[in-house]
Amino acid sequence: MAGSRLVRPSMAFRDSYRALVAEFAARAEPFVPFPLGFANENFEAFLAQLAGCAQGIDIPAGFVPHSTFWLVAGNEVVGVANLRHRLTDSLRIEGGHIGYGVRPSARGRGHGTRILALTLQEAAKLGIAQALVTCAKANLASSAVIRANGGVLQDEAFLESRGEVVQRWWVPTGAS
Ligand SMILES: CC(C)(COP(=O)(O)OP(=O)(O)OC[C@H]1O[C@@H](n2cnc3c(N)ncnc32)[C@H](O)[C@@H]1OP(=O)(O)O)[C@@H](O)C(=O)NCCC(=O)NCCS
User: For 5-127, which CATH superfamily applies?
Assistant: First the structure.
């Protein structure tokens, strides 16, 4: 959606961010992207944790540095994206470079397409030319978002761990 912008997590949007997480929780939706599940009662500590993740500080074994961004429309956080700085064998199968989620009450207004577009620009800044994005085949909204950003389907496979077919898409970031 034009006018929305991607920001680094900050105290300025604390209440709006918490309201977004509460909407996911109220609907018992999985926390996608996964940092939505990070504790945020102590918001300063939460922001410090996210900043550390982007530097590769205090991340679990096997994880790579990852950056979290918020899509802000008006004065509300309407979406969250997580950019993995590089791929691992595990991320190549599922997870890819970028995960994103839109506030349930704000879906269907183009925010999903926009947050992926803006996060692709962040990937380009890291030198990633083609971003891998994975998505459940049944997630038609997400595959529409990926396609709208120029995604090209590489393949799909049934993943035992997920109990569903997961697609892998390559999406150009604009980096040369
Ligand atoms: C996937 C998600 C980010 C889409 O966000 P959104 O803000 O609704 O996306 P947009 O408004 O940009 O819609 C993108 C497209 O999906 C379509 N769409 C939206 N909801 C849909 C649905 N339930 N079924 C089919 N298509 C749908 C829209 O019509 C639009 O297509 P169009 O551009 O051809 O009209 C959002 O549904 C979400 O957060 N889901 C939970 C987390 C998740 O699945 N993340 C992706 C992990 S891979």
Answer: Gcn5-related N-acetyltransferase (GNAT) (3.40.630.30)
